[in-house]
Amino acid sequence: MSSGEESAWAQHYGPWAVIAGGSEGVGAEFALLLARAGINLVLIARKPEPLRATADRCRELGVQARELALDLSRSAGVEQIIEATTDLEVGLLIYNAGANTHSAEFLDGDLAAFQRVIDLNVTTPLALIHHFGSPMRERRRGGVMLVGSLTGYLGSARHTVYGGVKAFTRIYAEGLWVELRDYDVHVLELVLGVTRTPAMQRVGLNFEVPGLQVSDPADVAREGLDRLPHGPVHVIATHADNPALHAGHDRAEAVLASHRMMQKLLRDAPAARGTDAPPVD
Ligand SMILES: NC(=O)c1ccc[n+]([C@@H]2O[C@H](COP(=O)([O-])OP(=O)(O)OC[C@H]3O[C@@H](n4cnc5c(N)ncnc54)[C@H](OP(=O)(O)O)[C@@H]3O)[C@@H](O)[C@H]2O)c1
Q1: What pLDDT sits at residue 277?
Q2: 120 lines ligand 1 (CB under 6 A)
Q3: Phi-psi bin for 279: left (phi > 0), alpha (psi -120 to 50), beta?
Q4: What is the whole-number distance in angstroms between the Cα of residue 138 and the centre of ligand 1?
C-alpha cells in the first residue's frame, strides 16, 4: 500500500471505522489495512478472544481500537453499538458478518433460526447504516461496505433464505449508492466467492474440489478497499467467471449446475450438512 493511498483512505474514511464482523478472516484483514492507514477502529464480533487478538494487532500499529463482543443477530446489539460510539466520528462502516447460520431445507428448518439469518444480514445492517450514514452525508464524505455473496445471484438448496438476503443487500446497495453518490459517500456491495476464512475452515469445507476457485481473506480485503470508491457492486476478480453471474437465459439449468457443484464442495464437510452450517458460495 502506498502512503498516498493510506492518506486518501484516512482523509475520506477516518478518523474511526466500525467493522461489524471485524475479528477474523476478511474482517480482521480490513481492520489491519485500515489501522496501517491510521484509522481508529471499533471491532464487533461474538467471540471475545479473536476480537481481542485483532484489536491488539491494530493497537500495535498505532491506532485506537474498541472491542464490542455482541451478537449482531439480536436487536439489542444495535443499541449497544450506538451507545459505544456516541463520542466518535465514524467515517466508514464495513458490514462483514453474515455467513449462513441455518442451512436447513426450508420446510424442514426452524423459522426463528431463519429469522436470525435475516436479522444478521438485513435488519441490523440497515439499522447501522441508517444511524452512521446520516452524519456521513452531512459531512459529504465516508463509506459503507456490505460483504455479499455469489449465493445472492442464484437460488440453491439449503440456502433459500441466505441467498435471498444476499440478493437483497446487493439491490439495496445499488439504490443506496445512487442516493449517496452526490454526497461523496462511497457505497459498495463486495461480492465474495468461496474464501478461506476461519469460519469456513472450521466447517471443514472441501476447498480441493477440482475447478473450484478459492480466495484468500487478505487479498479480498485489499481488493474491497481499492474498489470502495467505485461502487455499487464488485465481484472479487477470482470469481468473476462464476456461472451464477452469467445465468441469464436458462435459470433451471443454471440452478441445477450450481447445485451439483455445491454437493461436491460439501461432500467432505460433515458440519456443513447439518442444519446450522455456513454458506457454500
Ligand atoms: N467465506 C466464504 O467462503 C464466503 C463466501 C461468500 C460470502 N461470504 C461472506 O463473507 C462474510 C464473512 O464470512 P466468514 O466466512 O468470515 O464468516 P462469518 O461467520 O460471517 O464471520 C465473519 C466475522 O463476523 C463475526 N460474526 C459472525 N456472526 C456474527 C454475529 N451474529 N454477531 C457478531 N459477529 C458475528 C465473526 O466473529 P464471531 O464468530 O466471533 O462472531 C467474524 O469476525 C459474510 O458476510 C459471508 O456471507 C463468505
Answers
A1: 43
A2: yes
A3: beta
A4: 30
